[in-house]
Amino acid sequence: MQLTLYTDYSLRVLVYLGLKGEELATISEIAGHFDISRNHLVKVVHNLATHDFIHTVRGKGGGMRLARTPELINIGDVVRHTEPNFNIVECFDRDNKDCAITPICKLKGALHRASRSFMEVLDEYTLADVLQNREDLNRIIFMENTGTGRS
């Protein structure tokens, strides 16, 4: 299973904001630190705010911060709210009837079980778990980064 870049960027935004604490961060700032598209991050940030993972402040001096403590941000929840679907094979899509063996396929059940297990593991982790190596993350993101971001 591969997560989309959208989910990857969402998790990066949360990690970044988790490191910043109560201090506001901007989309441009995060885009620069991770060298990713500012335009793409606008959509990511909007979705994270819509699902109450982050709080945004508009206007001059505005930005964003986590809407709740890292202990209350579950990684499985983030993935569920950022992935468009979990159709790891075409037969998981109810509208796709292209595979001839779908009605009798035993692989489908195994893949469903594996997908469920994947999410169960993610449900065991919070953003606080991901931030346990805070000093190393700070060093890599804030001190060693020279990215300029893309528009």
Number of helical elements: 7
Low-confidence stretches: 146-151
Would you report the number of β strands?
A: 2
Distance between the termini: 29 Å
Strand fraction equals 5-15%
In helices, the fraction of residues equals 40-55%
CATH superfamily of the domain at 5-84 and 126-143: Winged helix-like DNA-binding domain superfamily/Winged helix DNA-binding domain
What's the main sheet like? Answer: 2 strands, antiparallel
Estimate the mean pLDDT confidence: 89
Radius of gyration: 18 Å
H-E order: HHHEEHHHH
CATH topology call of the domain at 5-84 and 126-143:
Arc Repressor Mutant, subunit A
Category by helix and strand content: mainly alpha
The top level CATH class name of the domain at 5-84 and 126-143 = Mainly Alpha
Spatial order of strands in the largest sheet: 1-2
Gross morphology:
elongated
List the helices and strands and how they pair.
Layout: H1 5-20, H2 27-34, H3 38-50, E1 54-57, E2 63-66, H4 75-82, H5 107-123, H6 127-130, H7 134-143
Antiparallel strand pairs: 1-2
Helix pairs in contact: 1-3, 1-4, 2-3, 4-5
In short:
The protein is mostly helical and 151 residues long.
Written overview of the protein:
The protein is mainly alpha-helical. It has helices at 5-20, 27-34, 38-50, 75-82, 107-123, 127-130, 134-143; strands at residues 54-57, 63-66. It has a two-stranded antiparallel ribbon with strand order 1-2. Helix 1 packs across helix 4 (75-82) and helix 4 packs across helix 5 (107-123). The two termini are 29 Å apart. The model is unreliable at 146-151 (pLDDT under 50).
